[in-house]
Amino acid sequence: MTPTLTSPPLPATSPAEKLMLAGVAGGLLALLLAWADADPGRRNTWFWLAIGLVSAGTLAWSWLKFGRHPAGVQQNNLWLRSSTGRGAVGWITGLVLTGFYVVLYWFSNGDNQGNFGLLSNLIHPLDSFSQWLRAKPADQWFLYGTFYTLAVLVMGGRALWKYRHSRYQVIRTLSVMFFQLGFSFLIPGLLQFFQKPEFYFNYFWPLHYQYLWPNDVHDLLKNGQALGVFMVFWGAVMSFVATPVLTYFYGKRWYCSWVCGCGGLAETAGDPYRQLSDKSRTAWRWEVRIVYTVLGLIIAITALLWVHFATGGALLGEVGNAAAKWYGFAIGSVFSGVIGVGFYPIMGSRVWCRFGCPMAAYLGLLQKHFSRFRISTNGAQCISCGNCSNVCEMGIDVQQYAQRGAPIIRASCVGCGMCSTACPRGVLNLENGPREGRYQASQLIHADSLRILS
Protein backbone atom coordinates (compact mmCIF):
# COMPACT_ATOMS: atom_id res chain seq x y z
CA MET A 1 0.00 0.00 0.00
CA THR A 2 1.34 3.40 -0.97
CA PRO A 3 1.68 5.70 2.05
CA THR A 4 -0.23 8.97 1.90
CA LEU A 5 1.14 12.30 3.05
CA THR A 6 -1.04 14.20 5.50
CA SER A 7 -0.62 17.63 7.02
CA PRO A 8 0.40 17.71 10.67
CA PRO A 9 -2.43 18.59 13.05
CA LEU A 10 -2.77 22.21 14.07
CA PRO A 11 -1.66 23.07 17.61
CA ALA A 12 -4.52 23.01 20.09
CA THR A 13 -6.10 26.36 20.91
CA SER A 14 -6.06 27.10 24.62
CA PRO A 15 -9.39 27.49 26.47
CA ALA A 16 -8.61 31.15 27.15
CA GLU A 17 -8.05 31.83 23.45
CA LYS A 18 -11.27 30.01 22.59
CA LEU A 19 -13.12 32.21 25.08
CA MET A 20 -11.76 35.39 23.52
CA LEU A 21 -12.59 34.17 20.01
CA ALA A 22 -16.08 33.35 21.23
CA GLY A 23 -16.34 36.95 22.39
CA VAL A 24 -15.37 38.18 18.92
CA ALA A 25 -17.94 35.83 17.37
CA GLY A 26 -20.54 37.15 19.82
CA GLY A 27 -19.69 40.69 18.74
CA LEU A 28 -20.22 39.81 15.09
CA LEU A 29 -23.56 38.23 16.00
CA ALA A 30 -24.54 41.38 17.91
CA LEU A 31 -23.67 43.44 14.83
CA LEU A 32 -25.94 41.23 12.74
CA LEU A 33 -28.74 41.72 15.29
CA ALA A 34 -28.21 45.51 15.18
CA TRP A 35 -28.52 45.40 11.40
CA ALA A 36 -31.79 43.43 11.60
CA ASP A 37 -33.47 45.10 14.60
CA ALA A 38 -36.00 47.84 13.81
CA ASP A 39 -36.24 49.08 17.40
CA PRO A 40 -33.86 52.09 17.80
CA GLY A 41 -33.07 51.43 21.45
CA ARG A 42 -32.22 47.75 21.06
CA ARG A 43 -30.41 48.47 17.79
CA ASN A 44 -28.07 50.96 19.46
CA THR A 45 -27.44 48.54 22.32
CA TRP A 46 -26.60 45.71 19.94
CA PHE A 47 -24.33 47.97 17.86
CA TRP A 48 -22.19 49.27 20.70
CA LEU A 49 -22.08 45.83 22.32
CA ALA A 50 -20.73 44.52 19.02
CA ILE A 51 -18.03 47.21 18.88
CA GLY A 52 -16.98 46.47 22.45
CA LEU A 53 -16.92 42.67 22.10
CA VAL A 54 -15.04 42.64 18.79
CA SER A 55 -12.46 45.19 19.95
CA ALA A 56 -11.87 43.78 23.44
CA GLY A 57 -11.97 40.18 22.22
CA THR A 58 -9.45 40.81 19.45
CA LEU A 59 -7.02 42.67 21.71
CA ALA A 60 -7.30 40.07 24.48
CA TRP A 61 -6.83 37.21 22.02
CA SER A 62 -3.79 39.00 20.55
CA TRP A 63 -2.19 39.18 23.98
CA LEU A 64 -2.91 35.51 24.62
CA LYS A 65 -1.66 34.50 21.17
CA PHE A 66 1.48 36.63 20.94
CA GLY A 67 2.08 38.49 24.20
CA ARG A 68 2.57 35.42 26.39
CA HIS A 69 5.00 33.71 24.03
CA PRO A 70 8.64 34.51 23.18
CA ALA A 71 8.99 37.46 20.82
CA GLY A 72 9.80 36.80 17.20
CA VAL A 73 8.08 36.19 13.87
CA GLN A 74 6.52 32.75 13.78
CA GLN A 75 4.55 31.38 10.84
CA ASN A 76 1.96 29.80 13.19
CA ASN A 77 0.81 27.29 10.58
CA LEU A 78 -0.75 30.06 8.50
CA TRP A 79 -0.98 27.94 5.36
CA LEU A 80 -2.79 25.16 7.22
CA ARG A 81 -5.50 27.35 8.69
CA SER A 82 -8.79 27.77 6.88
CA SER A 83 -8.85 31.49 7.68
CA THR A 84 -5.37 32.35 6.36
CA GLY A 85 -4.67 29.61 3.82
CA ARG A 86 -7.45 30.28 1.30
CA GLY A 87 -9.75 27.83 3.07
CA ALA A 88 -13.51 28.03 3.53
CA VAL A 89 -13.27 30.65 6.32
CA GLY A 90 -11.03 32.82 4.13
CA TRP A 91 -13.42 32.66 1.19
CA ILE A 92 -16.40 33.49 3.41
CA THR A 93 -14.50 36.44 4.90
CA GLY A 94 -13.65 37.68 1.40
CA LEU A 95 -17.27 37.41 0.28
CA VAL A 96 -18.49 39.34 3.33
CA LEU A 97 -15.92 42.11 2.83
CA THR A 98 -16.68 42.33 -0.88
CA GLY A 99 -20.42 42.40 -0.21
CA PHE A 100 -20.00 45.20 2.32
CA TYR A 101 -18.12 47.35 -0.18
CA VAL A 102 -20.70 46.70 -2.91
CA VAL A 103 -23.53 47.75 -0.57
CA LEU A 104 -21.54 50.75 0.70
CA TYR A 105 -20.77 52.15 -2.75
CA TRP A 106 -23.98 51.42 -4.63
CA PHE A 107 -26.82 50.54 -2.27
CA SER A 108 -26.56 52.95 0.65
CA ASN A 109 -26.93 56.42 -0.83
CA GLY A 110 -29.02 58.60 1.47
CA ASP A 111 -32.38 60.11 0.46
CA ASN A 112 -31.92 63.23 2.68
CA GLN A 113 -34.49 61.76 5.09
CA GLY A 114 -32.18 59.50 7.05
CA ASN A 115 -32.71 56.41 4.92
CA PHE A 116 -29.49 54.72 3.81
CA GLY A 117 -30.89 51.51 2.43
CA LEU A 118 -29.33 48.30 3.69
CA LEU A 119 -26.91 50.11 6.02
CA SER A 120 -29.42 52.39 7.79
CA ASN A 121 -29.55 50.35 10.99
CA LEU A 122 -25.76 50.41 11.28
CA ILE A 123 -25.43 54.10 10.46
CA HIS A 124 -27.93 55.62 12.90
CA PRO A 125 -26.31 54.29 16.10
CA LEU A 126 -23.40 56.60 15.17
CA ASP A 127 -25.57 59.74 14.92
CA SER A 128 -24.68 61.05 18.40
CA PHE A 129 -20.96 60.47 17.86
CA SER A 130 -21.15 62.11 14.43
CA GLN A 131 -23.00 65.12 15.87
CA TRP A 132 -20.29 65.49 18.49
CA LEU A 133 -17.44 65.24 15.99
CA ARG A 134 -18.87 66.73 12.78
CA ALA A 135 -22.00 68.63 13.92
CA LYS A 136 -24.22 66.59 11.61
CA PRO A 137 -25.83 63.12 11.55
CA ALA A 138 -23.91 60.07 10.43
CA ASP A 139 -23.98 58.83 6.86
CA GLN A 140 -22.56 55.79 5.07
CA TRP A 141 -19.11 57.35 4.78
CA PHE A 142 -18.95 58.12 8.48
CA LEU A 143 -19.83 54.48 9.20
CA TYR A 144 -17.09 53.38 6.82
CA GLY A 145 -14.54 55.75 8.34
CA THR A 146 -15.41 54.54 11.83
CA PHE A 147 -15.09 50.86 10.89
CA TYR A 148 -11.88 51.55 8.94
CA THR A 149 -10.25 53.45 11.79
CA LEU A 150 -11.36 50.89 14.36
CA ALA A 151 -9.87 48.10 12.24
CA VAL A 152 -6.51 49.90 12.02
CA LEU A 153 -6.44 50.63 15.77
CA VAL A 154 -7.54 47.20 16.98
CA MET A 155 -5.47 45.20 14.52
CA GLY A 156 -2.65 47.66 15.10
CA GLY A 157 -2.77 46.58 18.74
CA ARG A 158 -2.47 42.99 17.54
CA ALA A 159 0.57 43.94 15.43
CA LEU A 160 2.21 45.65 18.42
CA TRP A 161 1.98 42.42 20.40
CA LYS A 162 3.11 40.28 17.49
CA TYR A 163 6.12 42.38 16.47
CA ARG A 164 7.03 43.87 19.85
CA HIS A 165 10.61 42.61 19.49
CA SER A 166 11.23 44.93 16.51
CA ARG A 167 11.58 48.61 17.33
CA TYR A 168 11.12 49.47 13.64
CA GLN A 169 7.81 47.57 13.41
CA VAL A 170 6.49 49.03 16.65
CA ILE A 171 7.18 52.63 15.62
CA ARG A 172 5.87 52.03 12.10
CA THR A 173 2.64 50.50 13.44
CA LEU A 174 2.14 53.39 15.86
CA SER A 175 2.70 55.78 12.94
CA VAL A 176 -0.04 54.33 10.73
CA MET A 177 -2.40 54.21 13.73
CA PHE A 178 -1.67 57.86 14.47
CA PHE A 179 -2.16 59.07 10.90
CA GLN A 180 -5.36 57.08 10.42
CA LEU A 181 -6.94 58.28 13.66
CA GLY A 182 -5.78 61.88 13.46
CA PHE A 183 -5.39 62.80 9.81
CA SER A 184 -7.95 60.49 8.21
CA PHE A 185 -10.70 60.56 10.83
CA LEU A 186 -10.60 63.25 13.52
CA ILE A 187 -9.23 66.22 11.55
CA PRO A 188 -11.62 65.83 8.57
CA GLY A 189 -14.49 65.52 11.04
CA LEU A 190 -13.46 68.61 12.99
CA LEU A 191 -13.14 70.59 9.76
CA GLN A 192 -16.77 69.79 9.04
CA PHE A 193 -17.70 70.74 12.63
CA PHE A 194 -16.36 74.23 11.95
CA GLN A 195 -18.08 74.26 8.53
CA LYS A 196 -14.83 74.06 6.61
CA PRO A 197 -14.12 71.87 3.57
CA GLU A 198 -13.52 68.22 4.42
CA PHE A 199 -9.86 67.54 3.69
CA TYR A 200 -7.46 64.65 4.27
CA PHE A 201 -3.95 66.02 4.77
CA ASN A 202 -2.30 62.60 4.43
CA TYR A 203 -3.68 61.89 0.93
CA PHE A 204 -2.26 63.54 -2.18
CA TRP A 205 -2.60 63.45 -5.94
CA PRO A 206 -2.46 61.02 -7.74
CA LEU A 207 -3.91 58.76 -5.00
CA HIS A 208 -6.55 61.26 -3.94
CA TYR A 209 -6.82 62.43 -7.52
CA GLN A 210 -9.62 64.97 -7.03
CA TYR A 211 -7.49 67.27 -4.87
CA LEU A 212 -5.80 68.67 -7.99
CA TRP A 213 -8.79 68.52 -10.32
CA PRO A 214 -10.00 71.97 -11.41
CA ASN A 215 -13.51 71.80 -9.93
CA ASP A 216 -12.23 70.74 -6.53
CA VAL A 217 -9.45 73.32 -6.58
CA HIS A 218 -12.02 75.97 -7.50
CA ASP A 219 -14.35 74.91 -4.67
CA LEU A 220 -11.55 74.92 -2.10
CA LEU A 221 -10.38 78.36 -3.16
CA LYS A 222 -13.93 79.69 -3.18
CA ASN A 223 -15.37 78.18 -0.01
CA GLY A 224 -12.35 77.61 2.16
CA GLN A 225 -10.92 81.14 1.94
CA ALA A 226 -7.44 81.22 3.50
CA LEU A 227 -7.74 77.62 4.65
CA GLY A 228 -8.79 76.55 1.17
CA VAL A 229 -5.76 78.26 -0.35
CA PHE A 230 -3.55 76.43 2.13
CA MET A 231 -5.22 73.11 1.26
CA VAL A 232 -4.55 73.57 -2.45
CA PHE A 233 -1.01 74.69 -1.72
CA TRP A 234 -0.47 71.72 0.61
CA GLY A 235 -1.72 69.22 -1.96
CA ALA A 236 0.42 70.62 -4.77
CA VAL A 237 3.60 70.89 -2.68
CA MET A 238 3.21 67.42 -1.18
CA SER A 239 2.59 65.87 -4.60
CA PHE A 240 5.33 67.56 -6.61
CA VAL A 241 7.96 68.76 -4.13
CA ALA A 242 7.84 66.90 -0.82
CA THR A 243 7.14 63.48 -2.34
CA PRO A 244 10.24 63.44 -4.61
CA VAL A 245 12.46 64.82 -1.84
CA LEU A 246 11.26 62.40 0.85
CA THR A 247 11.37 59.47 -1.56
CA TYR A 248 14.94 60.35 -2.54
CA PHE A 249 16.07 60.05 1.07
CA TYR A 250 13.78 57.32 2.42
CA GLY A 251 12.22 55.48 -0.51
CA LYS A 252 8.48 55.03 -0.81
CA ARG A 253 8.29 53.59 2.70
CA TRP A 254 7.91 57.09 4.20
CA TYR A 255 4.41 57.14 2.71
CA CYS A 256 3.27 53.60 1.85
CA SER A 257 4.27 52.07 5.18
CA TRP A 258 4.16 55.00 7.59
CA VAL A 259 1.43 57.45 6.50
CA CYS A 260 -1.03 56.11 3.92
CA GLY A 261 -4.37 54.81 5.20
CA CYS A 262 -4.51 52.12 2.50
CA GLY A 263 -1.12 50.84 3.59
CA GLY A 264 -2.13 51.23 7.24
CA LEU A 265 -5.11 48.91 6.79
CA ALA A 266 -2.97 46.43 4.84
CA GLU A 267 -0.28 46.37 7.53
CA THR A 268 -2.73 45.91 10.41
CA ALA A 269 -6.03 44.31 9.38
CA GLY A 270 -4.33 42.67 6.39
CA ASP A 271 -1.37 41.25 8.30
CA PRO A 272 -2.85 37.72 8.64
CA TYR A 273 -3.02 37.50 4.84
CA ARG A 274 0.37 38.89 3.79
CA GLN A 275 1.69 35.43 2.87
CA LEU A 276 -1.02 35.02 0.19
CA SER A 277 0.63 37.57 -2.13
CA ASP A 278 1.51 35.93 -5.45
CA LYS A 279 5.31 35.76 -5.91
CA SER A 280 5.25 34.42 -9.48
CA ARG A 281 6.84 36.14 -12.47
CA THR A 282 3.43 36.19 -14.16
CA ALA A 283 2.03 38.25 -11.28
CA TRP A 284 5.02 40.61 -11.53
CA ARG A 285 4.42 41.12 -15.25
CA TRP A 286 0.75 41.93 -14.68
CA GLU A 287 1.68 44.24 -11.81
CA VAL A 288 3.95 46.31 -14.05
CA ARG A 289 1.42 46.44 -16.89
CA ILE A 290 -1.57 47.43 -14.79
CA VAL A 291 -0.21 49.83 -12.16
CA TYR A 292 1.62 52.06 -14.65
CA THR A 293 -1.41 52.05 -16.93
CA VAL A 294 -3.48 53.37 -14.01
CA LEU A 295 -0.87 56.06 -13.34
CA GLY A 296 -0.92 57.05 -17.01
CA LEU A 297 -4.72 57.21 -16.96
CA ILE A 298 -4.92 59.54 -13.99
CA ILE A 299 -2.26 61.83 -15.47
CA ALA A 300 -4.14 61.95 -18.78
CA ILE A 301 -7.53 62.52 -17.10
CA THR A 302 -6.13 65.31 -14.91
CA ALA A 303 -4.67 67.00 -18.00
CA LEU A 304 -7.96 66.58 -19.88
CA LEU A 305 -9.93 68.17 -17.06
CA TRP A 306 -7.63 71.17 -16.91
CA VAL A 307 -7.86 71.61 -20.70
CA HIS A 308 -11.63 71.29 -20.38
CA PHE A 309 -11.63 73.91 -17.61
CA ALA A 310 -9.28 76.31 -19.42
CA THR A 311 -11.29 76.23 -22.65
CA GLY A 312 -14.66 76.39 -20.95
CA GLY A 313 -15.51 72.97 -22.34
CA ALA A 314 -15.25 74.22 -25.93
CA LEU A 315 -12.31 72.07 -27.04
CA LEU A 316 -13.07 68.64 -25.62
CA GLY A 317 -16.70 68.86 -24.62
CA GLU A 318 -17.59 66.38 -21.89
CA VAL A 319 -14.75 63.95 -22.64
CA GLY A 320 -12.81 64.94 -19.55
CA ASN A 321 -15.80 64.71 -17.20
CA ALA A 322 -16.85 61.37 -18.66
CA ALA A 323 -13.32 60.00 -18.21
CA ALA A 324 -13.25 61.27 -14.62
CA LYS A 325 -16.54 59.54 -13.79
CA TRP A 326 -15.36 56.31 -15.38
CA TYR A 327 -12.08 56.42 -13.44
CA GLY A 328 -13.89 57.13 -10.18
CA PHE A 329 -16.12 54.09 -10.70
CA ALA A 330 -13.62 51.58 -12.09
CA ILE A 331 -10.50 52.54 -10.14
CA GLY A 332 -11.65 54.65 -7.20
CA SER A 333 -14.47 52.29 -6.19
CA VAL A 334 -14.20 48.83 -7.74
CA PHE A 335 -10.42 48.44 -7.71
CA SER A 336 -9.41 50.24 -4.51
CA GLY A 337 -12.38 49.15 -2.41
CA VAL A 338 -14.20 46.06 -3.63
CA ILE A 339 -11.10 44.27 -4.93
CA GLY A 340 -8.42 46.06 -2.95
CA VAL A 341 -9.85 45.14 0.48
CA GLY A 342 -12.45 42.50 -0.29
CA PHE A 343 -9.81 40.21 -1.77
CA TYR A 344 -7.45 40.36 1.27
CA PRO A 345 -8.20 36.76 2.34
CA ILE A 346 -7.67 35.42 -1.19
CA MET A 347 -4.92 37.47 -2.87
CA GLY A 348 -3.09 39.08 0.03
CA SER A 349 -3.25 42.45 1.71
CA ARG A 350 -1.63 44.67 -0.90
CA VAL A 351 -3.65 43.90 -4.04
CA TRP A 352 -4.52 47.57 -4.53
CA CYS A 353 -1.03 48.80 -3.67
CA ARG A 354 0.60 46.32 -6.07
CA PHE A 355 -1.70 46.46 -9.05
CA GLY A 356 -3.79 49.63 -8.92
CA CYS A 357 -2.48 52.48 -6.77
CA PRO A 358 -1.19 55.40 -8.90
CA MET A 359 0.61 56.87 -5.89
CA ALA A 360 2.51 53.61 -5.43
CA ALA A 361 3.45 53.67 -9.11
CA TYR A 362 4.63 57.29 -8.89
CA LEU A 363 6.64 56.61 -5.74
CA GLY A 364 7.99 53.39 -7.22
CA LEU A 365 9.46 55.16 -10.23
CA LEU A 366 11.16 57.65 -7.95
CA GLN A 367 12.41 54.91 -5.64
CA LYS A 368 13.87 52.70 -8.33
CA HIS A 369 15.64 55.40 -10.34
CA PHE A 370 16.38 58.30 -7.97
CA SER A 371 16.25 57.13 -4.34
CA ARG A 372 18.99 56.28 -1.85
CA PHE A 373 16.84 53.54 -0.35
CA ARG A 374 17.67 49.87 -0.79
CA ILE A 375 17.58 46.60 1.11
CA SER A 376 21.08 45.17 1.29
CA THR A 377 21.61 41.41 1.59
CA ASN A 378 24.37 39.12 2.80
CA GLY A 379 24.15 35.94 0.76
CA ALA A 380 26.81 34.16 2.78
CA GLN A 381 24.52 34.15 5.82
CA CYS A 382 21.31 33.11 4.02
CA ILE A 383 20.02 29.65 4.99
CA SER A 384 17.19 29.65 2.40
CA CYS A 385 14.44 29.31 5.02
CA GLY A 386 12.05 31.34 2.88
CA ASN A 387 10.68 33.43 5.76
CA CYS A 388 11.50 36.68 3.96
CA SER A 389 9.57 35.76 0.80
CA ASN A 390 6.66 34.37 2.79
CA VAL A 391 6.03 37.63 4.65
CA CYS A 392 6.48 39.95 1.64
CA GLU A 393 3.03 41.30 0.85
CA MET A 394 4.26 43.02 -2.33
CA GLY A 395 4.93 39.75 -4.14
CA ILE A 396 8.73 40.03 -4.12
CA ASP A 397 10.62 36.74 -3.92
CA VAL A 398 13.11 38.18 -1.45
CA GLN A 399 14.88 34.88 -0.94
CA GLN A 400 16.23 34.90 -4.52
CA TYR A 401 17.97 38.23 -3.87
CA ALA A 402 19.23 37.13 -0.46
CA GLN A 403 20.71 33.87 -1.75
CA ARG A 404 22.97 35.67 -4.20
CA GLY A 405 23.69 38.71 -2.04
CA ALA A 406 22.02 41.15 -4.45
CA PRO A 407 20.51 44.40 -3.14
CA ILE A 408 16.74 44.68 -3.44
CA ILE A 409 15.90 47.76 -5.47
CA ARG A 410 12.36 47.18 -6.62
CA ALA A 411 9.80 49.82 -7.51
CA SER A 412 7.10 47.84 -5.72
CA CYS A 413 8.92 47.49 -2.38
CA VAL A 414 7.14 49.54 0.30
CA GLY A 415 9.96 49.22 2.84
CA CYS A 416 7.74 47.63 5.48
CA GLY A 417 10.82 45.82 6.75
CA MET A 418 9.00 42.56 7.41
CA CYS A 419 11.56 40.57 5.44
CA SER A 420 14.32 41.88 7.69
CA THR A 421 12.21 41.35 10.81
CA ALA A 422 11.41 37.74 9.85
CA CYS A 423 14.98 36.79 8.90
CA PRO A 424 16.56 34.61 11.62
CA ARG A 425 20.12 35.41 10.51
CA GLY A 426 20.09 39.18 9.99
CA VAL A 427 20.70 38.80 6.25
CA LEU A 428 18.55 41.76 5.19
CA ASN A 429 19.04 45.38 6.15
CA LEU A 430 17.03 48.49 5.17
CA GLU A 431 19.38 51.30 4.20
CA ASN A 432 19.23 54.92 3.10
CA GLY A 433 22.86 54.98 2.07
CA PRO A 434 24.67 56.94 -0.63
CA ARG A 435 23.80 56.16 -4.22
CA GLU A 436 27.34 54.99 -4.87
CA GLY A 437 27.33 51.22 -4.84
CA ARG A 438 23.53 51.10 -4.73
CA TYR A 439 23.43 48.88 -7.78
CA GLN A 440 25.92 46.29 -6.62
CA ALA A 441 25.08 43.07 -8.49
CA SER A 442 22.82 45.16 -10.72
CA GLN A 443 23.64 42.98 -13.71
CA LEU A 444 21.69 40.13 -12.11
CA ILE A 445 18.74 42.37 -11.29
CA HIS A 446 18.70 43.90 -14.76
CA ALA A 447 18.77 40.46 -16.34
CA ASP A 448 15.83 39.37 -14.20
CA SER A 449 13.87 42.47 -15.18
CA LEU A 450 14.44 41.82 -18.86
CA ARG A 451 13.22 38.25 -18.52
CA ILE A 452 10.12 39.34 -16.62
CA LEU A 453 9.14 42.08 -19.05
CA SER A 454 9.88 40.06 -22.17
Automatic annotation (TrEMBL):
The keyword Transmembrane applies. Keywords: 4Fe-4S, Electron transport, Iron, Iron-sulfur, Membrane, Metal-binding, Transmembrane, Transmembrane helix, Transport. The chain crosses the membrane at residues 46-66, 87-107, 141-161, 173-194, 226-249, 290-314, 326-346. SUPFAM superfamilies: 4Fe-4S ferredoxins. InterPro entries: 4Fe4S_Fe-S-bd, 4Fe4S_Fe_S_CS, Electron_Trans/Redox. PANTHER family: FERREDOXIN-TYPE PROTEIN NAPH. This is 4Fe-4S ferredoxin-type domain-containing protein. The lineage of its organism: Bacteria, Pseudomonadati, Bacteroidota, Cytophagia, Cytophagales.
